[in-house]
Amino acid sequence: MPDETITFYHAAPSRSAIVHWMLEEVGAPFRIELLDLSKGEQKRPQYLAVNPMGKVPAIVHLGVVITEVAAICVYLADAFPAAGLAPAIKDPGRGTYLRWAFFEAASLEPAIIDRMLERPPGRPGALGYGDFDTTIDVVARAVTPGPYLLDTRFSAADVLIGSALRWGMMVGCVPQRPEVTAYVERLTARPALQRAQAKDEELAGRKRGG
Fold this sequence. Notes:
A four-stranded mixed β-sheet has the order 2-1-3-4, with helices on one face. The chain folds into two domains: 6-84 and 195-208, Glutaredoxin (3-Layer(aba) Sandwich), CATH 3.40.30.10; 94-191, Glutathione S-transferase Yfyf (Class Pi), Chain A, domain 2 (Up-down Bundle). Helix 1 (17-26) packs parallel to helix 3 (69-79) and helix 4 (94-116) runs antiparallel to helix 5. The chain has helices at residues 17-26, 45-48, 69-79, 94-116, 132-142, 156-170, 178-188, 191-208; strands spanning 6-10, 30-34, 58-61, 64-67. The protein is of the alpha+beta class and 210 residues long.
């Protein structure tokens, strides 16, 4: 049988922490190839052969390269169905799951980044997310009453949306709305996220120590 161990190209800290959390939720075997972004290791030929964009994260599974956070999370949920992190193809909840899984990259993260960088608001019709306040309102309604985006079912969509909200709150861009704060607190209490965070702190400390 082929080796199903996932190779995970990672940098700590970076947005690849989202995939680290997802891998811990999946529970499949993986090994970390750590890249030091401050040394430009993501731009070296060896890694550019994996991801020509020179960005993390990326994974290799069964000889196939997958990049882009949302694509990786959706792939992992489907590749390891025993983890229960995605509705099956014919499940009525599949469409809602995919909606939120890709809302993070298409709308929520761009809205947060524009707010963080204090970019002047453009025409709503020209922006994928329209406007920041509407984007946050839509997410806040989606996680109410919760506990998750798919009601009582935790999924890869929560990993993606939850990670963006956690980061947005950390940088002071996402308002501390009670429903959003409660959702983030529920996710932060998940053992898989706590394991990923502890490992990332260790990796970051190892990098600082040389």
